[in-house]
Specification:
The structure holds two protein chains of two kinds. Chain A is about 40% helix and about 15% strand. Chain A has helices spanning about 35-40, 45-50, 95-110, 150-170, 175-180, 185-190, 200-220, 220-230, 235-250, 275-290, 305-315, 325-335, 365-370, 380-385, 390-400, 415-420, 435-445; strands at about 5, 20, 25-30, 60, 75-80, 115, 125-130, 130-135, 140, 295-300, 315-320, 340-345, 375, 405-410, 445-450, 460-465. In chain A, the strands form four sheets. Chain A has a seven-stranded mixed sheet with strand order 12-11-10-13-14-16-15, sandwiched between helices. A five-stranded antiparallel sheet of chain A has the order 1-2-3-5-4, with no helix packed on it. The radius of gyration of chain A is 24 Å and the shape is globular. By secondary structure, chain B is mostly helical. Helix content of chain B is about 85%, strand content about 0%. The N and C termini of chain B lie far apart (about 100 Å). The chains are: A alpha/beta, B mainly alpha. The interface between A and B is medium-sized, with 38 and 27 residues.
Chain lengths: ~475, ~70
Amino acid sequence: MSAVRRNAGSYRDPAGHVYESGGRIFRTINERARSDYEAVRDQGILGSAVQKGLLIDSSEVERAQWDEGFARAAYVVEHPRVEFVSYPYEWPFRALKAAALHHLDLQLYLLTRKAALSDSTAYNVQFSGPKPIFIDLLSVRPYREGEFWLGHRQFCEQFLNPLLLQSKLGISFNTWYRGNLEGIPTADLARALPLSSRFSWNMLSQVILQAKLQAKATDAPAQAIQEAKKSRTLSRAAYEGMLRQLRNWIARLEPGNTGATVWGNYAKDNTYTGAEAQEKRRFIAEFAAKTRPKVLIDIGCNTGDYSVAALEGGASYVVGFDFDQRALDLAFSRSETESLKFLPLWLDASNPSPDQGWMQAERAGFGERAKVDALVALAFEHHLAIAKNVPLPQVVDWLVDRAPVGVIEFVPKDDPTVKTMLALREDIFDDYSIETFTNRLTERARIVQQKVVSESGRTLFFYERTQ
Amino acid sequence: MEKRSLFLSLMAILFLTTPAYAYLDPGTGSILLQALIGGIAASVTVVSMYYQRIKAFFAGQSASKESNEK
């Protein structure tokens, strides 16, 4: 093993850390966590949670094969690699909901086996396609009779509150979540809720009452801590009851009114005819068949038509990006329904996820993570070049940097979509042309194939990066 | 001088008590909440469990009735 690199986000828990080495993922389990780990492992709790698809698989690595940096660990385990690491602030509503239910299902299962989770961070859930998986086995430990649900507040802030924000107020959580990293504070949500929410027991107890008690505790911490210590223990039935109530509640939440969808009905619109879409799907499928990418990103994925075409063509895994919430929710439920290896994520391409958190390294930015095997960006480029005024050569550079091979669609000025974009504003885009586009693309890549797919002159470019 | 410092400390208490400990926040509010509503959550679960059983009982009855009729 050489060049082990500790994951920058793995510093909070002294029980162990995550390392990467040569594309493999290792987790150390330190002495302080040894007994808890041995307990849940030896009772078969970890194994059965893995079998049920609740917990990520792990296998112990023999000491002889350890990197010298691991010498002080009690155990080292290896995990399979997650295809693409994503963060809760990039998840559409349905993905966060699926993650929340998964987290609760894991807890409910663990309780039946007399185990519990030590925390509730949403960052411990990752996705393989639309399927959530819990990645931190060190959060699993034996249940202590009478203990409170210590991760409750964190669960509310990182799962429940963002879902409520979207579901009850129609405000998408992503930007707020990204800014705060730890979710939506209960006190803030409580202030935003309408009076009528006091008539819902769940809302009243989980949000309003919790915010009040938190405020009380902040005002007089010593007294509140005293009170908390004095309070009776939480029975296992009550612990389970809280989990079940939250589960039932969250299972019923649906995304609130997000207003007019920008791209939701895109496929149905007459922007281009069905035959054109067919043509594009065939082009993408052939591209995927030729390049066989392990991970392909589809920027501007909308409801996932071309992601699906790429999967059918031979891509093993597709991560889709879009900024339209409804399209993303549709894409996510499509992936769930059809059991696709397709994960749709939220992205504002003009302001992608930055490197952030502690040391600005805890959560890697989009640029670092989105370096993949192949790229598809159809009907996308003009949303940066026209709507956001990004110079066209920069758009080409940014896209080509994502993957060594890809397909980019160029949308000319005569296209109805661009005409609509320019309808109420001055055309300041003198350099916006297919010549500018191809000039820059040929500086960076070889054009393998080029195909006009619409009467307006929309053109697909299959490129192979040269530099 | 003394009056002034007394005034200042009073002002400090008045204006600083609320935000002063905001950074401590050990999740006490969540624990107090669980102590308050835990019992309710437990009883709701027990009641719904029995309700499900009763429902299942009657559903089972009518199901077996139906199969008998067939």
